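sry for the spam today, last one i promise. C-alpha coordinates for design, 423 residues
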Protein backbone atom coordinates (compact mmCIF):
# COMPACT_ATOMS: atom_id res chain seq x y z
CA UNK A 1 0.00 0.00 0.00
CA UNK A 2 2.94 2.39 0.44
CA UNK A 3 3.41 2.45 -3.31
CA UNK A 4 0.59 2.28 -5.79
CA UNK A 5 1.20 2.66 -9.50
CA UNK A 6 4.84 3.48 -8.68
CA UNK A 7 3.97 6.49 -6.54
CA UNK A 8 5.67 6.90 -3.18
CA UNK A 9 4.13 8.45 -0.08
CA UNK A 10 4.47 12.23 -0.36
CA UNK A 11 3.35 13.21 3.16
CA UNK A 12 2.28 11.76 6.49
CA UNK A 13 -0.70 12.89 8.56
CA UNK A 14 -1.93 12.12 12.06
CA UNK A 15 -5.52 13.11 12.88
CA UNK A 16 -7.06 12.99 16.32
CA UNK A 17 -10.80 12.71 15.76
CA UNK A 18 -13.36 14.73 17.69
CA UNK A 19 -17.07 15.32 17.29
CA UNK A 20 -16.82 18.89 15.95
CA UNK A 21 -13.21 19.44 14.94
CA UNK A 22 -10.01 17.45 14.53
CA UNK A 23 -6.41 18.15 15.48
CA UNK A 24 -4.10 17.48 12.51
CA UNK A 25 -0.33 16.99 12.42
CA UNK A 26 1.39 16.68 9.04
CA UNK A 27 4.93 16.13 7.86
CA UNK A 28 6.08 16.11 4.24
CA UNK A 29 8.28 13.17 3.24
CA UNK A 30 11.96 14.02 3.71
CA UNK A 31 11.16 17.00 5.91
CA UNK A 32 11.70 17.28 9.65
CA UNK A 33 9.12 20.03 10.04
CA UNK A 34 5.70 19.28 11.51
CA UNK A 35 2.69 21.30 10.45
CA UNK A 36 -0.34 21.86 12.67
CA UNK A 37 -3.92 22.72 11.84
CA UNK A 38 -7.47 22.28 13.12
CA UNK A 39 -9.97 20.70 10.74
CA UNK A 40 -13.71 21.19 11.24
CA UNK A 41 -16.00 18.18 10.90
CA UNK A 42 -17.80 19.67 7.93
CA UNK A 43 -17.97 18.12 4.43
CA UNK A 44 -16.85 21.36 2.80
CA UNK A 45 -13.89 21.78 5.19
CA UNK A 46 -12.70 18.20 4.64
CA UNK A 47 -13.09 18.47 0.86
CA UNK A 48 -11.16 21.76 0.72
CA UNK A 49 -8.38 20.35 2.88
CA UNK A 50 -7.95 17.24 0.72
CA UNK A 51 -8.06 19.34 -2.45
CA UNK A 52 -5.31 21.53 -1.03
CA UNK A 53 -3.17 18.46 -0.32
CA UNK A 54 -3.78 17.12 -3.81
CA UNK A 55 -2.63 20.39 -5.40
CA UNK A 56 0.33 20.79 -3.07
CA UNK A 57 1.70 17.27 -3.57
CA UNK A 58 0.73 16.85 -7.19
CA UNK A 59 -1.81 14.12 -6.55
CA UNK A 60 0.75 11.81 -4.93
CA UNK A 61 -0.26 9.48 -2.12
CA UNK A 62 -0.63 10.74 1.47
CA UNK A 63 -0.57 8.36 4.47
CA UNK A 64 -3.15 9.26 7.13
CA UNK A 65 -3.32 7.69 10.61
CA UNK A 66 -6.51 8.07 12.65
CA UNK A 67 -8.26 6.35 15.55
CA UNK A 68 -11.33 5.26 13.64
CA UNK A 69 -12.45 2.37 11.48
CA UNK A 70 -15.96 3.72 11.11
CA UNK A 71 -17.65 7.01 11.79
CA UNK A 72 -18.03 10.45 10.29
CA UNK A 73 -14.36 11.22 9.64
CA UNK A 74 -13.32 7.96 8.02
CA UNK A 75 -16.52 8.00 5.98
CA UNK A 76 -15.53 11.42 4.70
CA UNK A 77 -11.93 10.45 3.90
CA UNK A 78 -12.42 7.00 2.39
CA UNK A 79 -13.69 8.42 -0.89
CA UNK A 80 -10.42 10.17 -1.77
CA UNK A 81 -8.03 8.14 -3.90
CA UNK A 82 -5.12 10.38 -2.80
CA UNK A 83 -5.33 9.23 0.83
CA UNK A 84 -4.06 5.94 2.22
CA UNK A 85 -5.84 5.43 5.55
CA UNK A 86 -4.24 3.67 8.52
CA UNK A 87 -6.83 3.10 11.29
CA UNK A 88 -5.04 2.69 14.63
CA UNK A 89 -6.51 0.92 17.64
CA UNK A 90 -7.30 3.59 20.28
CA UNK A 91 -5.70 1.35 22.91
CA UNK A 92 -2.40 1.55 21.01
CA UNK A 93 -2.47 5.34 21.20
CA UNK A 94 -3.49 5.22 24.86
CA UNK A 95 -0.55 2.93 25.72
CA UNK A 96 1.90 5.17 23.86
CA UNK A 97 0.49 8.25 25.59
CA UNK A 98 0.89 6.51 28.94
CA UNK A 99 4.49 5.57 28.11
CA UNK A 100 5.64 8.94 26.74
CA UNK A 101 3.47 11.26 28.86
CA UNK A 102 3.27 9.56 32.30
CA UNK A 103 1.56 12.58 33.87
CA UNK A 104 -1.70 11.05 32.66
CA UNK A 105 -3.02 14.12 30.88
CA UNK A 106 -4.83 13.58 27.60
CA UNK A 107 -4.85 16.27 24.96
CA UNK A 108 -5.73 16.18 21.30
CA UNK A 109 -2.42 17.63 20.07
CA UNK A 110 -0.53 14.87 21.89
CA UNK A 111 -2.63 12.14 20.26
CA UNK A 112 -2.26 13.70 16.83
CA UNK A 113 1.55 13.73 17.36
CA UNK A 114 1.51 10.07 18.37
CA UNK A 115 -0.54 9.10 15.33
CA UNK A 116 1.84 11.02 13.09
CA UNK A 117 4.78 9.19 14.65
CA UNK A 118 3.08 5.83 14.06
CA UNK A 119 2.35 6.45 10.40
CA UNK A 120 5.78 8.00 9.78
CA UNK A 121 8.05 5.58 11.63
CA UNK A 122 6.02 2.43 12.34
CA UNK A 123 3.92 1.94 9.24
CA UNK A 124 5.05 -1.69 9.10
CA UNK A 125 3.12 -2.31 12.35
CA UNK A 126 -0.24 -1.12 11.01
CA UNK A 127 -2.22 -2.16 7.96
CA UNK A 128 -3.56 0.26 5.38
CA UNK A 129 -7.32 0.13 5.20
CA UNK A 130 -8.89 -0.71 1.86
CA UNK A 131 -12.69 -0.43 2.02
CA UNK A 132 -14.81 -3.22 0.64
CA UNK A 133 -17.21 -2.57 -2.20
CA UNK A 134 -20.36 -0.67 -1.28
CA UNK A 135 -22.53 -3.81 -1.31
CA UNK A 136 -20.33 -5.51 1.29
CA UNK A 137 -19.94 -2.43 3.46
CA UNK A 138 -23.70 -1.99 3.46
CA UNK A 139 -24.14 -5.61 4.48
CA UNK A 140 -21.59 -5.15 7.29
CA UNK A 141 -23.43 -2.09 8.59
CA UNK A 142 -26.83 -3.74 8.38
CA UNK A 143 -25.96 -6.99 10.17
CA UNK A 144 -24.31 -5.13 13.05
CA UNK A 145 -27.17 -2.63 13.36
CA UNK A 146 -29.67 -5.49 13.26
CA UNK A 147 -27.88 -7.21 16.11
CA UNK A 148 -28.08 -4.03 18.18
CA UNK A 149 -31.85 -3.95 17.65
CA UNK A 150 -32.07 -7.64 18.57
CA UNK A 151 -30.22 -6.87 21.81
CA UNK A 152 -32.74 -4.09 22.47
CA UNK A 153 -35.56 -6.55 21.81
CA UNK A 154 -34.01 -8.93 24.33
CA UNK A 155 -33.82 -6.15 26.90
CA UNK A 156 -37.48 -5.26 26.43
CA UNK A 157 -38.69 -8.87 26.46
CA UNK A 158 -36.77 -9.52 29.68
CA UNK A 159 -38.51 -6.54 31.29
CA UNK A 160 -41.85 -7.71 29.88
CA UNK A 161 -41.33 -11.20 31.26
CA UNK A 162 -40.57 -9.75 34.68
CA UNK A 163 -43.69 -7.57 34.56
CA UNK A 164 -45.96 -10.45 33.55
CA UNK A 165 -44.62 -12.69 36.29
CA UNK A 166 -45.86 -10.16 38.83
CA UNK A 167 -49.53 -10.17 37.78
CA UNK A 168 -50.29 -12.30 34.64
CA UNK A 169 -47.74 -15.16 34.38
CA UNK A 170 -50.02 -17.40 32.26
CA UNK A 171 -49.12 -15.40 29.13
CA UNK A 172 -45.63 -16.90 29.33
CA UNK A 173 -47.17 -20.36 28.88
CA UNK A 174 -49.72 -19.47 26.21
CA UNK A 175 -47.30 -17.55 23.95
CA UNK A 176 -44.04 -19.38 23.29
CA UNK A 177 -42.12 -16.51 21.69
CA UNK A 178 -42.27 -13.49 23.95
CA UNK A 179 -40.34 -11.25 21.57
CA UNK A 180 -42.95 -11.56 18.82
CA UNK A 181 -45.81 -9.63 17.25
CA UNK A 182 -48.16 -12.18 18.82
CA UNK A 183 -47.45 -11.08 22.38
CA UNK A 184 -47.86 -7.38 21.54
CA UNK A 185 -51.23 -8.10 19.89
CA UNK A 186 -52.34 -10.30 22.80
CA UNK A 187 -51.55 -7.71 25.46
CA UNK A 188 -53.09 -4.93 23.42
CA UNK A 189 -56.31 -6.96 23.22
CA UNK A 190 -56.27 -8.70 26.62
CA UNK A 191 -53.87 -7.08 29.12
CA UNK A 192 -55.27 -9.03 32.10
CA UNK A 193 -56.52 -12.53 32.83
CA UNK A 194 -59.99 -11.15 33.53
CA UNK A 195 -60.17 -9.50 30.10
CA UNK A 196 -59.20 -12.64 28.16
CA UNK A 197 -61.57 -14.79 30.18
CA UNK A 198 -64.43 -12.47 29.25
CA UNK A 199 -63.70 -13.03 25.55
CA UNK A 200 -65.62 -15.66 23.58
CA UNK A 201 -63.81 -18.95 23.02
CA UNK A 202 -64.21 -18.54 19.26
CA UNK A 203 -62.54 -15.11 19.42
CA UNK A 204 -59.55 -16.62 21.21
CA UNK A 205 -59.36 -19.47 18.68
CA UNK A 206 -59.41 -16.97 15.84
CA UNK A 207 -56.61 -14.94 17.46
CA UNK A 208 -54.25 -17.92 17.66
CA UNK A 209 -55.18 -19.05 14.13
CA UNK A 210 -54.38 -15.58 12.76
CA UNK A 211 -50.96 -15.76 14.42
CA UNK A 212 -49.91 -18.95 12.70
CA UNK A 213 -51.10 -21.67 15.08
CA UNK A 214 -52.31 -24.52 12.90
CA UNK A 215 -52.40 -27.30 15.50
CA UNK A 216 -56.09 -27.38 16.45
CA UNK A 217 -55.42 -29.59 19.47
CA UNK A 218 -52.84 -27.17 20.90
CA UNK A 219 -55.19 -24.22 20.35
CA UNK A 220 -58.00 -26.03 22.18
CA UNK A 221 -55.66 -26.77 25.09
CA UNK A 222 -54.90 -23.05 25.38
CA UNK A 223 -58.57 -22.09 25.20
CA UNK A 224 -59.33 -24.52 28.05
CA UNK A 225 -56.30 -23.29 30.03
CA UNK A 226 -57.52 -19.70 29.68
CA UNK A 227 -60.96 -20.66 30.98
CA UNK A 228 -59.55 -22.58 33.95
CA UNK A 229 -56.78 -20.12 34.89
CA UNK A 230 -56.72 -18.46 38.31
CA UNK A 231 -55.50 -14.95 38.99
CA UNK A 232 -52.10 -14.65 40.63
CA UNK A 233 -53.43 -11.71 42.63
CA UNK A 234 -56.64 -9.70 42.86
CA UNK A 235 -54.88 -6.68 44.32
CA UNK A 236 -56.12 -3.85 42.11
CA UNK A 237 -52.97 -1.78 42.58
CA UNK A 238 -50.67 -4.61 41.44
CA UNK A 239 -52.89 -5.60 38.50
CA UNK A 240 -53.39 -2.04 37.25
CA UNK A 241 -49.71 -1.11 37.54
CA UNK A 242 -48.68 -4.41 35.95
CA UNK A 243 -51.13 -3.98 33.08
CA UNK A 244 -49.89 -0.46 32.30
CA UNK A 245 -46.26 -1.52 32.42
CA UNK A 246 -46.81 -4.59 30.24
CA UNK A 247 -48.75 -2.64 27.64
CA UNK A 248 -46.16 0.14 27.61
CA UNK A 249 -43.39 -2.40 26.98
CA UNK A 250 -45.47 -4.11 24.30
CA UNK A 251 -45.97 -0.77 22.54
CA UNK A 252 -42.19 -0.22 22.54
CA UNK A 253 -41.65 -3.73 21.27
CA UNK A 254 -43.96 -3.46 18.24
CA UNK A 255 -41.97 -0.90 16.14
CA UNK A 256 -38.73 -2.62 17.15
CA UNK A 257 -39.99 -5.91 15.71
CA UNK A 258 -41.04 -4.13 12.52
CA UNK A 259 -37.57 -2.57 12.23
CA UNK A 260 -35.86 -5.94 12.67
CA UNK A 261 -38.11 -7.43 10.00
CA UNK A 262 -37.13 -4.56 7.70
CA UNK A 263 -33.45 -5.25 8.31
CA UNK A 264 -34.01 -8.95 7.67
CA UNK A 265 -35.57 -8.19 4.29
CA UNK A 266 -32.78 -5.83 3.21
CA UNK A 267 -30.04 -8.20 4.42
CA UNK A 268 -31.63 -11.16 2.64
CA UNK A 269 -31.84 -9.19 -0.61
CA UNK A 270 -28.19 -8.09 -0.43
CA UNK A 271 -26.97 -11.53 0.55
CA UNK A 272 -28.90 -13.25 -2.24
CA UNK A 273 -27.17 -11.07 -4.86
CA UNK A 274 -23.69 -11.22 -3.32
CA UNK A 275 -21.08 -13.23 -5.26
CA UNK A 276 -19.87 -14.94 -2.06
CA UNK A 277 -23.37 -16.06 -1.03
CA UNK A 278 -22.81 -19.67 -2.11
CA UNK A 279 -19.66 -19.99 0.00
CA UNK A 280 -21.12 -18.70 3.26
CA UNK A 281 -24.54 -20.29 2.91
CA UNK A 282 -22.79 -23.68 2.60
CA UNK A 283 -21.67 -23.74 6.24
CA UNK A 284 -23.88 -25.96 8.43
CA UNK A 285 -26.45 -24.11 10.57
CA UNK A 286 -25.49 -20.69 9.19
CA UNK A 287 -29.00 -20.04 7.78
CA UNK A 288 -30.45 -16.61 7.07
CA UNK A 289 -28.98 -14.73 10.05
CA UNK A 290 -25.45 -16.04 10.56
CA UNK A 291 -24.51 -16.63 6.90
CA UNK A 292 -24.66 -12.88 6.06
CA UNK A 293 -22.82 -12.09 9.30
CA UNK A 294 -20.02 -14.50 8.39
CA UNK A 295 -19.74 -12.97 4.94
CA UNK A 296 -19.61 -9.50 6.49
CA UNK A 297 -16.90 -10.68 8.91
CA UNK A 298 -14.57 -11.74 6.09
CA UNK A 299 -15.48 -9.02 3.62
CA UNK A 300 -14.70 -9.14 -0.06
CA UNK A 301 -11.02 -8.16 -0.26
CA UNK A 302 -9.12 -11.46 -0.29
CA UNK A 303 -5.77 -9.70 0.05
CA UNK A 304 -6.75 -8.23 3.44
CA UNK A 305 -5.60 -11.27 5.42
CA UNK A 306 -2.41 -13.18 4.69
CA UNK A 307 -3.55 -16.21 6.67
CA UNK A 308 -6.41 -17.51 8.78
CA UNK A 309 -4.49 -16.61 11.93
CA UNK A 310 -4.91 -12.92 11.09
CA UNK A 311 -8.70 -13.26 11.43
CA UNK A 312 -8.41 -15.55 14.44
CA UNK A 313 -6.33 -12.90 16.22
CA UNK A 314 -8.35 -9.90 15.05
CA UNK A 315 -11.65 -11.46 16.13
CA UNK A 316 -10.34 -12.41 19.57
CA UNK A 317 -11.07 -16.10 18.95
CA UNK A 318 -7.36 -16.96 19.16
CA UNK A 319 -6.20 -17.01 22.80
CA UNK A 320 -3.37 -14.92 24.20
CA UNK A 321 -0.33 -16.67 25.65
CA UNK A 322 1.55 -14.79 28.37
CA UNK A 323 4.93 -16.04 29.58
CA UNK A 324 7.05 -14.74 32.43
CA UNK A 325 9.98 -16.70 33.75
CA UNK A 326 8.77 -20.25 34.31
CA UNK A 327 5.08 -19.39 34.11
CA UNK A 328 2.94 -19.68 30.99
CA UNK A 329 -0.72 -18.62 30.94
CA UNK A 330 -3.16 -19.01 28.04
CA UNK A 331 -6.22 -16.79 28.34
CA UNK A 332 -9.07 -15.23 26.40
CA UNK A 333 -8.14 -12.31 24.13
CA UNK A 334 -9.93 -9.20 25.40
CA UNK A 335 -8.86 -6.50 22.93
CA UNK A 336 -10.88 -7.22 19.79
CA UNK A 337 -13.95 -6.08 17.82
CA UNK A 338 -16.69 -7.52 20.03
CA UNK A 339 -19.28 -7.98 17.28
CA UNK A 340 -16.76 -9.88 15.16
CA UNK A 341 -15.94 -12.26 18.02
CA UNK A 342 -19.62 -12.62 18.82
CA UNK A 343 -20.32 -13.66 15.22
CA UNK A 344 -17.83 -16.53 15.22
CA UNK A 345 -18.70 -17.54 18.79
CA UNK A 346 -22.41 -17.71 18.03
CA UNK A 347 -21.84 -19.63 14.83
CA UNK A 348 -19.76 -22.21 16.69
CA UNK A 349 -22.62 -22.57 19.16
CA UNK A 350 -25.05 -23.28 16.32
CA UNK A 351 -22.70 -25.65 14.50
CA UNK A 352 -22.41 -28.08 17.42
CA UNK A 353 -26.16 -28.71 17.28
CA UNK A 354 -25.66 -30.79 14.14
CA UNK A 355 -23.81 -34.09 14.08
CA UNK A 356 -20.34 -33.70 12.62
CA UNK A 357 -16.79 -32.83 13.50
CA UNK A 358 -17.78 -29.62 15.33
CA UNK A 359 -20.03 -31.42 17.82
CA UNK A 360 -17.48 -34.19 18.30
CA UNK A 361 -14.72 -31.64 18.92
CA UNK A 362 -16.89 -29.76 21.42
CA UNK A 363 -17.80 -32.99 23.29
CA UNK A 364 -14.14 -34.01 23.50
CA UNK A 365 -13.15 -30.65 24.97
CA UNK A 366 -15.99 -30.73 27.49
CA UNK A 367 -15.00 -34.26 28.52
CA UNK A 368 -11.52 -32.91 29.28
CA UNK A 369 -12.99 -30.32 31.61
CA UNK A 370 -12.91 -27.33 29.24
CA UNK A 371 -15.67 -24.84 30.05
CA UNK A 372 -18.52 -24.26 27.61
CA UNK A 373 -17.48 -20.90 26.14
CA UNK A 374 -13.81 -21.85 25.94
CA UNK A 375 -14.82 -25.00 24.05
CA UNK A 376 -16.93 -22.92 21.66
CA UNK A 377 -13.98 -20.61 20.99
CA UNK A 378 -11.85 -23.65 20.19
CA UNK A 379 -14.47 -24.86 17.72
CA UNK A 380 -14.72 -21.36 16.25
CA UNK A 381 -10.92 -21.30 15.87
CA UNK A 382 -11.12 -24.38 13.65
CA UNK A 383 -14.11 -23.02 11.74
CA UNK A 384 -12.26 -19.79 10.88
CA UNK A 385 -9.42 -21.80 9.38
CA UNK A 386 -11.93 -23.76 7.24
CA UNK A 387 -13.88 -20.65 6.26
CA UNK A 388 -10.72 -18.81 5.30
CA UNK A 389 -9.75 -21.56 2.86
CA UNK A 390 -13.25 -21.74 1.36
CA UNK A 391 -13.31 -17.94 1.10
CA UNK A 392 -9.91 -17.77 -0.57
CA UNK A 393 -10.73 -20.57 -3.02
CA UNK A 394 -14.34 -19.37 -3.50
CA UNK A 395 -15.44 -22.94 -2.92
CA UNK A 396 -18.48 -24.04 -0.84
CA UNK A 397 -17.83 -26.03 2.31
CA UNK A 398 -18.04 -29.83 2.20
CA UNK A 399 -18.29 -31.78 5.47
CA UNK A 400 -17.26 -34.96 3.66
CA UNK A 401 -14.17 -33.33 2.16
CA UNK A 402 -13.09 -31.96 5.53
CA UNK A 403 -13.63 -35.32 7.25
CA UNK A 404 -11.46 -36.98 4.61
CA UNK A 405 -8.77 -34.37 5.23
CA UNK A 406 -8.85 -35.19 8.97
CA UNK A 407 -8.33 -38.87 8.17
CA UNK A 408 -5.58 -38.10 5.67
CA UNK A 409 -3.63 -35.98 8.18
CA UNK A 410 -4.10 -38.50 10.99
CA UNK A 411 -6.05 -36.10 13.20
CA UNK A 412 -7.24 -37.60 16.52
CA UNK A 413 -10.57 -35.94 15.74
CA UNK A 414 -11.09 -38.37 12.84
CA UNK A 415 -11.02 -41.36 15.21
CA UNK A 416 -13.38 -39.62 17.61
CA UNK A 417 -15.81 -38.94 14.76
CA UNK A 418 -15.79 -42.60 13.76
CA UNK A 419 -16.42 -43.68 17.34
CA UNK A 420 -19.25 -41.17 17.70
CA UNK A 421 -20.85 -42.43 14.49
CA UNK A 422 -20.51 -46.07 15.56
CA UNK A 423 -21.87 -45.38 19.03
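last one done:
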Amino acid sequence: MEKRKGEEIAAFVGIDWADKQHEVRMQAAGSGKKETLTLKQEPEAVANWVQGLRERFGGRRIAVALEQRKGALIHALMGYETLVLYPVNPKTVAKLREAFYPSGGKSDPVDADLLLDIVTNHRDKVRAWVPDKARTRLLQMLVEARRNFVDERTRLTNKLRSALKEYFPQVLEWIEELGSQEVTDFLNKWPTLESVQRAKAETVRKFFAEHGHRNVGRVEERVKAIGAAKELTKDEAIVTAGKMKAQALARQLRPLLESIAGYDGQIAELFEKHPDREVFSSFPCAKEVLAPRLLAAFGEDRSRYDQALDIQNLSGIAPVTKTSGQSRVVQKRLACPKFLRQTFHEYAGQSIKKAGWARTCYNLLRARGVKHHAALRAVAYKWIRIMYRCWQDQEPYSEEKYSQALVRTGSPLASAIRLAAAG
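The beta strands are 9-16, 21-28, 35-40, 61-66, 83-87, 320-324, 327-331. ok im logging off now
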